[in-house]
Amino acid sequence: MYVGRNSTLLGGVYAGCSIGPHCKVHGEIEESIVLGYSNKAHDGFLGHAYLGMWVNLGAMTTNSDLKNNYSNVRIWTPRGEVDSGEMKLGALIGDHVKTAIGTLLNTGTVIGAGTNVFGGMPPKYLPPFSWGSDGEYAFDKFLETASVAMQRRGVPLNASQKDMLSRAFKRRNQL
Fold this sequence. Notes:
Elements: E1 2-3, E2 8-15, E3 18-19, E4 24-30, E5 33-34, E6 39-40, E7 45-47, E8 50-51, E9 56-57, E10 62-63, E11 74-75, E12 82-83, E13 92-93, E14 98-99, E15 104-105, E16 110-111, E17 116-117, E18 125-126, E19 130-131, E20 135-136, H1 139-151, H2 159-171
Parallel strand pairs: 1-3, 2-4, 3-5, 4-6, 4-7, 5-8, 8-13, 9-14, 10-15, 13-16, 14-17, 16-18
Antiparallel strand pairs: 11-12, 19-20
C-alpha cells in the first residue's frame, strides 16, 4: 500500500491501494488508485476502482467490483462497450467528480470528469460534466464549485487549469 504525503487515513480497511497526496480516506478500500486531493472520508466500499484528482465521494458511496454471475466486467468506451477481461473492476471516475450521499455505483461504471452524481444509482456511463443522470452541469457553476473545493485545500484554480477544463467541456459532446 502507498499513501502520499499529507494524506489522512481516517480508519477502515485498506488493501493493495495507492492513495495520492492530500487525500482523506475512510471505509473499505481494496485494490484501488486514488489520485491527489480526493476524498472518500466516510463509510462505503471502493474496490478495484480509479479516482481522478479532486473527487469527493459522499458518505456511503459504494461501488460494486464483482458481478453476481462472476463473468468479466464490460465497460463503456467511446467505441462502445467492451469486455475488460477482468472479473473484478469497480468504478472509473474522472477528475472533479462529486457523488451524493448514498450513491451506489454498478460494476464497471465510468463517470466523466466534472460530473455531479446524485439520485440513487446512476447509469453505468455518465458523460463528462453531467448533472445527475440526464442533465449538463452549467460550466460557470462547475468552475465555481471546483474553485471552492480547491481553495479549501489552499490550491487556487489558475487560468491554465480553467482553460484545460473549458476545452474538455467543449469536447464533452464529441464522446
